[in-house]
């Protein structure tokens, strides 16, 4: 039995039987979209800070990209802890806004150029290195693992099946790239694609990288299998 705070992502329903998934979201449009799409999921109106479930009900309780929206993140995580059985998993992820790796990074770069003191998203709960772990601890949870998703923008866009990428380059690199593309008589996009393809191939044939890749796959497989149980 799994539970997602805020309408669960499709991937969770795909991995666990819909009948075994419950969700809570305070937004009525999310709730009704979720009910239309996954009629077998138990979707309720509510918020993380006051979960409408008895204690110890779920094996895994997830908050994907939600903690930074919570009015009281520690109360929300403590509630997630309450509804999870002893030995179960409570997991959350958030964008790395402080590291400027969220989906609106380019927007905030531009906003800061115009107003350096603009109030961006980097102060939201759990969106700076180590803060999510601190909130878990404040909620009485002992973190067993932490990690960073390889590239949030790519993950998000892949989920939306949009085949575009946002790449931020320092001005001098961008100028050099444009100049090289001009000499090669190809577009900058083509030049980037070639470079990325060469980079991927080089990484794949690097024995040290392959070893680290395998270790990382093992780690992630273990976590996913535990969550799907
Ligand atoms: C970025 S969406 C993430 C949805 C889903 N978990 C996913 O990954 O696709 C954030 C969601 O958090 C919900 N939300 C905001 N405040 C919340 C709270 N206090 N408790 C639970 N969900 C909340 C919003 O309504 C919205 O549906």
Structure description:
Mean pLDDT is 83; it is low at 148-164. α3 links the parallel β4 (58-64) and β5. This protein has nine helices and five strands. The chain has helices spanning 10-15, 28-37, 73-82, 105-114, 131-138, 152-159, 171-184, 188-204, 207-228; strands at residues 2-5, 21-25, 42-45, 58-64, 84-93. The longest helix has 22 residues, at 207-228. The site of S-adenosylmethionine has 21 residues, from β1 and β2.
Descriptive labels:
229 residues, alpha/beta, 9 helices, 46% helix, binds S-adenosylmethionine
State the gist of this model.
Helices cover 46% and strands 13% of the residues.
Hetero ligands: S-adenosylmethionine
Report the oligomer. single chain
Rg calculated over all Cα atoms:
21 Å
Name the CATH superfamily classification of the largest domain: Vaccinia Virus protein VP39
Could you state the order of secondary-structure elements as H and E? EHEHEEHEHHHHHH
CATH architecture of the largest domain: 3-Layer(aba) Sandwich
Give the termini distance in whole angstroms.
8 Å
- What name is given to the CATH topology of the largest domain? Rossmann fold
């Amino acid at each position: 039995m799994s539970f997602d705070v805020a309408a669960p992502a499709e991937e969770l329903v795909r991995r666990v039987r819909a009948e075994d998934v419950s969700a809570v979201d305070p937004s009525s449009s999310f709730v009704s979209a979720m009910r239309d799409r996954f009629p077998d999921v138990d979707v309720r109106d509510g918020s993380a800070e006051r979960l409408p479930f008895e204690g110890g009900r779920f094996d895994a309780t997830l908050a994907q990209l939600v903690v930074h929206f919570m009015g009281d993140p520690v109360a929300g995580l403590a509630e997630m802890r309450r509804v999870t059985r002893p030995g179960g998993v409570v997991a959350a992820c958030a964008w790395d806004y402080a590291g400027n790796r969220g989906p609106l990074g380019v927007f905030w770069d531009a906003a800061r150029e115009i107003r350096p003191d603009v109030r961006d998203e980097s102060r939201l709960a759990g969106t700076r290195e180590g803060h999510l772990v601190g909130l878990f601890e404040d909620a009485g949870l002992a973190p067993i693992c932490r990690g960073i998703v390889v590239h949030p923008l790519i993950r998000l866009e892949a989920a939306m099946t949009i085949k575009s990428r946002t790449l931020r380059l320092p001005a001098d690199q961008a100028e050099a790239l444009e100049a090289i593309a001009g000499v090669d008589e190809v577009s900058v996009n083509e030049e980037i694609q070639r470079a990325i393809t060469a980079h991927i191939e080089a990484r794949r044939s690097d024995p040290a990288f392959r070893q680290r890749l395998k270790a990382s796959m093992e780690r992630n497989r273990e976590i996913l299998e535990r969550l799907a149980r």
